[in-house]
Design a protein that fits this description.
The complex is a heterodimer. By secondary structure, chain A is mostly helical. Helix content of chain A is 37%, strand content 1%.
Chain lengths: 390, 144
């Protein structure tokens, strides 16, 4: 008898108390999952690595620069060439085209300030670092440190805006001025936030137990939401207020690009992240005591990072077609078809037990689409004109 | 203790006797080491293991930390090194980050840089190394 009790007690495993699962009504579990997709708007604090984050003068400078094609080699490509305000800060193309066509789809800049990693491969850990990359990329804007710095020094309006943003004239080295330009661009992009959506209203109605407001949410969207957090398992990667983890996933999209090359995705992004000067671990972090770059230092390159690309947010997803890192899927219905017929053998690291063909019915597909529709804000995109500088 | 006559036989025990048996299994003997209260507990062949997260409730995709407590069952043993990792057993993948384990002395360790990047069932995998042996403890944790 005593031996039996010691066998029982030999390995005692207790789940941490705060997270012990307990029997719960399915509706409660679903509502709990939906409530965690908020609140919206999300609380946000200025980026400590960027000393002009959330500063009005820098936002003004960033707005001017965002639409200025003189940052590019031939004076024809601005940030707005690919990140168009009338197309939800994308360009509507499968693959972005600057001075030349690239290999990846243009990511919407909506809510970009909430990200942890930037770019499809997470090759930047700061928004200002990411803002600098396309300026210097030869296929995108083809600019340079020298060209950017000269523009700031020589253009009277930009010179004035720089001085107001950074409280000194642009007299420093070209690299320093160009990084400051990137920080001003980041400050502007931090203002690009989506508005509230019908789903946010429904979520608040769940919290407030407002039956009337809940009833205003379309029934097919409610069924779609149940699928989203239930059988379809979308919530495994698309969770939280942004409906996105901050991480990366392989979902079986081919990673072959032109000329037989491959796009390594996160694997290459990690290499770039660990080599760059323009990040949290580099010399241009304005507050390394606060913005420590802990995760940048601890991120672990793994075999499965090949073919992994960032999990995008689903907010305003109906406005950012086409989809996937290479823009290969034209519509959301096609996205659902991809997941419905998922070929597990195409997952680059093999089946992971999480992704499996969903085999959605037509009704289920329509319900999921109805739910995704409610994640879109109808608020118009308005870009104020830059303020004059004196 | 007299066995009761019941279809489930020896599975039926008074609650007090069960509690006493568990206490006997967990109380450290002659080491002067005790796990603090309020921590999740497990054990290996030679160690008692306590673990708690900061914050107590782990949120998906948020960085969190943990405190690890290790008590040897024998006074002749001491843990030299601890490693902490985690994985999702049903998805067969681990974390995207390598946590840092800092020894604090007295069998205490601080773990930083933990991120569970999706909701679901995770397992902490705790590797303990003594002079001539390594042992592993597992602690499950489901997050929503």
């Amino acid at each position: 008898m005593i031996r039996g009790w010691f066998r029982l007690g030999a390995v005692v495993m207790l789940v941490l108390g705060a997270t012990m699962t307990s029997p719960t009504h399915p509706q409660d579990a679903m509502n709990r999952a939906l409530i965690q997709m908020g609140p919206w708007p999300l609380f946000w604090a200025a980026d400590p690595s960027n000393r002009v984050s959330d500063q009005a003068a820098a936002i003004n400078l960033g707005r001017s620069l965002f639409f200025d094609p003189r940052l590019s080699l031939d004076g024809t490509i601005s940030c707005a060439s690919c990140h168009r305000p009338d197309l939800a800060w994308t360009d509507g193309r499968a693959r972005a085209r600057g001075l030349a066509e690239t290999d990846r789809n243009t990511i919407s800049l909506f809510n970009v300030r909430s990200r942890r990693w930037f770019g499809w491969d997470g090759g930047s850990d700061t928004l200002w670092g990411q803002s600098l990359r396309p300026i210097l990329d030869k296929r995108e804007m083809g600019g340079s440190l020298e060209r950017t710095a000269a523009l700031i020094r020589e253009d009277p309006r930009l010179h004035c805006q720089y001085r107001k943003s950074f409280e000194h004239a642009p007299n420093g080295p070209d690299e320093t001025i160009t990084v400051d330009v990137a920080k001003a661009l980041a400050a502007f992009q931090e203002t690009l936030v989506t508005g509230r959506t019908p789903f946010d209203e429904f979520r608040d109605a769940l919290i407030g137990n407002d039956a009337a407001a809940q009833a205003a949410y379309p029934e097919e969207a409610r069924r779609g939401a149940a699928l989203f957090v239930g059988r379809a398992g979308c919530i495994s990667c698309h969770f939280g207020p942004n409906l996105s983890s901050m991480e990366f996933q392989d979902i079986g999209i081919p990673y072959f690009i032109a000329n037989g090359d491959v796009d390594p995705g996160r694997f290459a992004g990690l290499k770039r992240l660990q080599a760059t000067r323009y990040g949290l671990l580099g010399p241009f972090n304005d507050n390394p005591l606060v913005a420590k770059g802990l995760l940048t230092a601890q991120v672990a390159p793994l075999h499965r990072n090949w073919g992994e690309f960032r999990v995008p947010s689903l907010r305003n997803i109906t406005r950012t077609a086409p989809y996937m890192h290479d823009g290969s899927i034209p519509t959301l219905r096609d996205v659902l078809r991809h997941y419905s017929r998922l070929a597990e053998e195409r997952l680059h690291s093999g089946p992971d037990g999480m992704l499996r063909p969903l085999n959605l019915t037509d009704v289920e597909t329509n319900d999921l689409l109805a739910f995704l529709e409610t994640l879109t804000s109808q608020a118009p995109v308005m870009v104020p004109r830059p303020e004059p500088c004196r | 203790m007299r066995r009761r006559s019941h279809p489930f036989g020896r599975m039926i025990r008074p609650r007090a006797a069960r509690a006493a048996a568990l206490c006997v299994a967990l109380i450290p003997q002659a080491t002067g080491c005790e796990l603090p209260g309020g921590v999740a507990r497990t054990e290996t062949a030679d160690f008692l293991v306590g673990f708690t997260t900061r914050p107590p409730t782990v949120i998906p995709d948020r960085i969190f930390e943990a405190d690890l407590y290790v008590c040897p069952k024998s006074a002749s043993l001491s843990v030299l090194e601890a490693r902490v990792d985690a994985r999702m057993p049903r998805h067969d993948h681990g974390m995207n980050y390598r946590p840092v384990v800092e020894p604090l002395g007295g069998g205490r360790f601080h773990v930083s840089g933990l991120v569970f990047h999706m909701p679901g069932l995770w397992e902490f995998v705790i590797e303990l190394r003594a002079a001539d042996r390594s042992q592993r403890a597992i602690l499950p944790l489901r997050i929503e």
